[in-house]
């Protein structure tokens, strides 16, 4: 294994397994002391033998300030079991800079899959993993709280198979053969006529680069959505054989159109979910306008509007492998709350809290933090600071 220069005087160097275990004992309390972990007591069985291991120490000059430990989990998978960095060295992008070196090592060693799990509200680790190409695979309860398993495929076909499983794309060609599914017809661009921007029901928000976000009536949004829907979506949803029989429930609705050069290029629609929660139902951009950083620029004005309407929480659902949307949502403060299967596929459920109480509550539930202060009192834990 190689020495990795992480910049800023930091490096990662191969260390013996015994050095890593000693560092866990010496530094583990400082790194993980604020989390909640179930204490099982003495081990009753011997641990299974380790396969191939990968152990690095993270150094500031010559001082050991953290580590990364991974081991072989199967004939195809390596498991990133443990990474820790002392608190005073966190928030400097070390994990993000270390990750590509680790993945290159696993690839060179011949692995197909890289797996890990993290507390479900630990966005500081989940975000760089998603940016590196990992996908969310589920949620589970374990001795550390609620964790999110994540997998990176170093094989392009398997990565696309996860998109098919989530409903984010159709199965075609070799991918369909490997999944034992019929191959879908090759996707073709859907022709559409440009739609001029209608009049606003409020002030435009300048999104930069010639783009605007314009509030409109729900009926205006839905009419345009119906015209452009096929040109926007390539995901695979269930086609219901008949319209829904009950009348839709009437909720407060909030709709915007995204415009460029006075033409509609996308939209956003939200509605009330319950007495405390708004639901971000639908955001879309025409293909020619994706990859320009528009979604992160749309989020702040939409969230401000929902907050001024009195909501405490904002909920949204996205295909579990749609990292292009999950990353900006998590960066905006959303937290992963679950996975569900609906008529669109396997969807990640995200939640944003405008206040700190519910945000801290999510961290307590995941085991990322121990209860203290207001959240402990709200949970009836009679916490004494």
Automatic annotation (TrEMBL):
One Pfam match: Acetyltransf_1
UniProt-listed InterPro entries: Acyl_CoA_acyltransferase, GNAT_dom
Signal peptide: none
One of the record's GO molecular function terms: acyltransferase activity, transferring groups other than amino-acyl groups
Domain N-acetyltransferase stretches: 10-155, 211-356
Protein name from the UniProt record: N-acetyltransferase domain-containing protein
Organism: Deinococcus marmoris
